[in-house]
Amino acid sequence: MLDIGYALSNRFPDPPQTDYRRADVHALRHDLFCGDVYLADTESDRELSTAWGWVPVLDFAWALCDIVERVDRDPAGSRAARPQRAELDFTESTDRLLFERRFGWVDIEAEWLPASEPPLTFSHTELRREARDFLHDLLADLTDLHDALAENPAIWTLQARFPRIP
Asked: Pseudo-torsion of CA 47, 131, 59, 75, nearest 10°?
């Protein structure tokens, strides 16, 4: 089973003058809510995690939802044998998460781990559902911390673009 989580950093707090109601997409994705993230396979007790403290957590959730859709563009869907690839890069470093979907399964590798480390593998359906749940849970946590964020039109658009999957 897939578990996606995060921790906000105390070392890189948001600027105190931030107007969350009016923050633009660039600020929301790159300048605010820094911390660390992880993807874990709870059955094998393995995870891919950052330990840098500066990863824009909302951007990670947003990009993960985008990637899940990007690797689902083959008309054959879960029957597609041709690999579909995407990557999530961390803008402040050269490290990336690499995603490869073949049939209904997605392998996820972290470039910062040794090449001998096998990828985490999840069904595309589970990855899509968990990525969207993570996004919505994160937004709920962030709006609990910053009430004005719930009034930001970019957040409304993001929630509409990636609704929860029942």
From this structure: 110
Question: Is 0.90 surpassed by the pTM of this model?
Answer: yes
Q: Where are the domains of the chain?
A: 2-161
Phi, psi dihedrals of residue 141, rounded to the nearest 5°: -65, -45
Query: What distance separates the 2 farthest-apart alpha carbons in the chain?
Result: 50
DSSP 24: -
Q: For the segment 104-125, what is each residue's pLDDT rounded down to a tens digit? A: 999 999 999 999 999 999 999 9
Residues near 77 by Cβ (< 8 Å), separated by ≥ 6?
104
- Looking up tokens 């923050």, which residue turns up? 23
Categorize the per-residue pLDDT at 93 as very low, low, confident or very high, splitting at 50, 70 and 90.
confident
